[in-house]
Design goal:
The complex is a heterodimer. Chain A is an alpha/beta fold. Helix content of chain A is about 25%, strand content about 25%. A six-stranded mixed β-sheet of chain A has the order 7-6-5-8-9-10, with helices on both faces. Chain A is globular. By secondary structure, chain B is α/β, with parallel strands linked by helices. Helix content of chain B is about 25%, strand content about 30%. Chain B has six helices and 16 strands. In chain B, the strands form four sheets. Chain B has a six-stranded mixed β-sheet, sandwiched between helices. A four-stranded antiparallel β-sheet of chain B has the order 4-13-1-15. A four-stranded antiparallel β-sheet of chain B has the order 3-2-14-16. In chain B, a hairpin with a 3-residue loop joins strand 6 and strand 7. In chain B, helix 3 packs parallel to helix 4 and helix 4 runs parallel beside helix 5. Chain B is globular and about 55 Å long. Classes of the chains: A alpha/beta, B alpha/beta. At the A-B interface, helix 1, strand 7 and helix 2 of A face strand 10 of B.
C-alpha cells in the first residue's frame, strides 16, 4: 500500500453517552479536522456549510457533522530509552500536566518503551489512576524500539470505538527492536492508515536524527490528520502536551457516505471557507469492504 | 483460614551478630498498637513452619542476576524444612505461578520450573511486579500459620493493574512477611541543562514493603555502590529469616478493614528487633 492510503470506512460510534452519538446503518468515512487561523489559534464553532470534502477530487455531501467538544481516547507513548534519562522528570511532569488537562469523558492509556515495551492494561479517565501510573511506572533505560511500541499502542486501542489517537513523545527514530515485538515502519504505517488511527508526535532534541526516516514518520503523521511538534531545549513540553489535548478536543467531526467499496485508495481533501483559515485532516482513505 | 479475632505479628529478635535470640516469652515483649499497649495472648518461639510464595522477576531489565531460575533447585528447595510449603512464580509480562502450595520438594521444583518456562518475548514488557505481589498476597490470605513472600526483582514495575500501595496493603492484610532481594541502589540522574540531579531508588517501594510487613531487604544499605549478595547466599538467608521469627498473637485491635500502627520492643537491651509496623484487620 502506498503512502496515500488513509482510510477507513467506518461506522461512526461514540462511546460517551452524553456526547453526540452517530450511528448509521450505512458505512461512513469519518474525518477529524483541525482548523487554525492565521495566527495559529484553534478555530471552533464553524458550521457544516463552511466545509467541503472531496473524494478523489469530487465533492461529496457531508452527512455527519459536529463541532462539539470531542472526548479523547489516547495512548500516550513515552520514550524511556537511555537517552531520555536527562529528561525523565520533565517527561513525568509533562505527563502529569497532560493528565490534569483531561476532561471527565476523556480516556488515556500510558505506555512506555525502552528496555521493554510496556502497555498499561488500564485505559481510563480516572486521573488518580493515571497519575499513579505516571509516578510509579517510568523507568528509563535501553534502546528506542519505536515501531514495535507504536504498533503495540495501536493494538491496545484497536477495539475502541470512535477516534483513536496515539501520542508519542520521543527523541529519536526507531533504534533496535525487542524479541517478539519487531515491527518496521511499513507495518506501522499500514496499520495506522487502514484502521484510521490518528498519530501525534512530540520530538525532543535528541542524539539520533535520521532525517530521512524522521521525514517519513512525520509525513505519516500528517497523513493521519495528526500533528507533530519539535521541541528545543528551551521549549515548554508541558504546554505542548496541553495544547495537543486542547487540539484533539476541538477537532471537527465530519462524515460522508462513500461510494461502493472498491478496495482502493481514495484521495481525500477537506477545505474550509474563511479568511486565513487552514485545515488539517487525513489525506486519504481506502474503501475497504466491511 | 487464619482466626479472625486474632492478629499475628512476626517478630525477628537477633543479637548484634545476627543470631536469633531464643527463649523469649510474652513477658519479654512490649507490643503497642496505635501507641497503646496491647495484651499478648500467645507467643510462639521459632523456628516455625512457613507457607511461602517465591517470586522471581525474569523480565529483560533484570540484569542483576543471570540464570536466576537455577536458584529454585540451588537455593529455594534446599532451604525448606519439614512442614514448610511453597509456590514459585515468575514475573514476566504477567505472573506465572505454580498452581498450589506444596511441601514436596520434587513437586515444588517441577512446578517452579514450569512457571519459569516463559517465552523469551514475554520478558520484554511489561513488568507487573505489583500485580504479582498482590496476587501472591491474596493467595496467602487464606492460608494459616507463618505466611511470607520472597521476591527477587529490580523494582522497575510497569503495566500494573494495581498500584504499589494496593500490593503493600494486600501483603499487610494477609499478614505476610515480605522478604526482598533487590538492587536497592541509589542512582542519580542528571536533569536538563541545569546540572541538577534527581535521586532515584528503584528499591524504595520494596524497602517500604519489607518495613511495613516485618521483612528484610537485601542489600539493606541503598548506597550507590551497594554490592549485591550472591543469590545463592541471600535466598537461604531470607527464607531462614522468616522461619526464625517469633509469632506474637494479640486481639484484633479494631473492626474489619481498620488499619493500625504496630510497634514491638523487647525489654532486654542490646537486641535488634524487627516486626511489621502496619496491621490491617481482615
Amino acid at each position: 500500500m502506498t503512502r496515500a492510503a488513509c482510510v477507513l470506512v467506518a461506522v461512526l460510534a461514540s462511546a460517551a453517552s452524553s456526547q453526540p452519538t452517530f450511528r448509521s446503518s450505512v458505512q461512513t468515512v469519518a474525518i477529524h479536522a483541525t482548523v487554525r487561523d492565521a495566527s495559529g489559534r484553534l478555530v471552533p464553532n464553524l458550521s457544516k456549510d463552511q466545509f467541503s470534502v472531496f473524494d478523489n477530487g469530487k465533492p461529496v455531501e457531508i452527512t455527519t457533522f459536529s463541532n462539539d467538544i470531542q472526548p479523547i481516547t489516547v495512548a500516550l507513548l513515552l520514550d524511556m530509552s537511555g537517552s531520555m534519562i536527562p529528561r525523565v522528570l520533565l517527561v513525568r511532569d509533562s505527563t502529569l500536566k497532560f493528565i490534569d488537562a483531561l476532561l471527565p469523558e476523556d480516556r488515556a492509556r500510558i505506555c512506555t518503551f525502552g528496555d521493554e515495551i510496556a502497555i498499561s492494561p488500564i485505559l481510563t479517565g480516572d486521573k488518580s489512576i493515571l497519575t499513579r501510573i505516571a509516578r510509579e511506572e517510568l523507568w528509563p533505560g535501553g534502546a528506542t524500539p519505536l515501531w514495535g511500541a507504536m504498533y503495540a499502542a495501536m493494538e491496545s486501542l484497536a477495539k475502541e470505538p470512535g477516534r483513536r489517537v496515539v501520542l508519542v513523545l520521543t527523541d529519536g527514530i526507531n533504534d533496535g527492536s525487542l524479541p517478539g515485538r519487531k515491527k518496521d515502519f511499513g507495518e506501522v504505517r499500514d496499520r495506522a492508515i487502514k484502521e484510521g488511527f490518528m498519530l501525534y508526535a512530540v520530538y525532543m532534541q535528541g542524539y539520533q536524527q535520521d532525517d530521512g526516516a524522521k521525514r517519513k514518520f512525520l509525513t505519516l503523521i500528517d497523513d493521519t490528520g495528526g500533528g507533530h511538534f519539535q521541541m528545543g531545549p528551551e521549549d515548554d513540553l508541558q504546554s505542548t502536551f496541553v495544547r495537543i489535548a486542547d487540539e484533539l478536543r476541538r477537532q471537527y467531526l465530519i462524515g460522508f457516505t462513500p461510494g461502493p467499496p472498491d478496495g482502493r485508495e481514495h484521495k481525500l481533501e477537506v477545505k474550509v471557507n474563511g479568511a486565513g483559515l487552514t485545515v488539517r485532516a487525513r489525506t486519504s482513505y481506502v474503501a475497504v469492504r466491511q | 483460614m487464619p482466626p479472625t479475632n486474632v492478629a499475628s505479628i512476626a517478630v525477628s529478635v537477633t543479637t548484634d551478630t545476627g543470631s536469633t535470640v531464643g527463649g523469649l516469652t510474652a513477658g519479654d515483649f512490649d507490643v503497642r498498637v496505635d501507641g497503646q499497649p496491647a495484651a499478648i495472648q500467645r507467643v510462639t518461639a521459632p523456628p516455625v513452619p512457613i507457607t511461602l510464595v517465591v517470586l522471581f522477576d525474569i523480565t529483560s531489565s533484570m540484569t542483576m542476576y543471570g540464570g536466576i531460575e537455577e536458584e529454585i533447585a540451588r537455593s529455594v528447595v534446599p532451604s525448606l524444612r519439614a512442614g514448610d510449603r511453597a509456590r514459585v512464580g515468575a514475573i514476566a509480562n504477567r505472573l506465572s505461578l505454580a498452581p498450589v502450595f506444596s511441601s514436596a520438594p520434587r513437586e515444588i521444583l517441577a512446578a517452579g520450573r514450569k512457571a519459569m518456562s516463559v517465552r523469551r518475548e514475554d520478558r520484554y514488557g511489561p513488568s507487573p511486579i505489583w500485580d504479582a505481589l498482590k496476587t501472591s498476597a491474596d493467595a496467602l490470605a487464606s492460608e494459616s500459620g507463618r505466611r511470607a513472600i520472597l521476591i527477587v526483582t529490580d523494582g522497575r514495575a510497569t503495566g500494573n493493574a494495581v498500584s504499589a500501595a494496593d500490593a503493600v496493603d494486600a501483603a499487610v492484610a494477609a499478614e505476610a512477611v515480605v522478604e526482598v532481594l533487590s538492587e536497592n541502589r541509589t542512582s542519580f540522574y542528571r536533569q536538563g541543562a541545569e546540572q541538577s540531579y534527581v535521586r532515584v531508588r528503584t528499591g524504595y517501594v520494596l524497602e517500604e514493603l519489607a518495613r511495613l510487613t516485618g521483612g528484610l531487604i537485601l542489600p539493606s544499605d541503598p548506597k550507590p555502590t551497594a554490592d549485591l549478595p550472591p543469590a545463592s547466599e541471600a535466598i537461604p538467608r531470607l527464607i531462614n529469616d522468616v522461619r526464625e521469627m517469633y509469632s506474637i498473637e494479640i486481639a484484633q485491635p479494631g473492626p474489619a478493614g481498620s488499619a493500625h500502627r504496630v510497634e514491638v520492643r523487647v525489654k532486654r537491651g542490646g537486641l535488634a528487633v524487627r516486626a511489621r509496623s502496619a496491621l490491617r484487620v481482615p
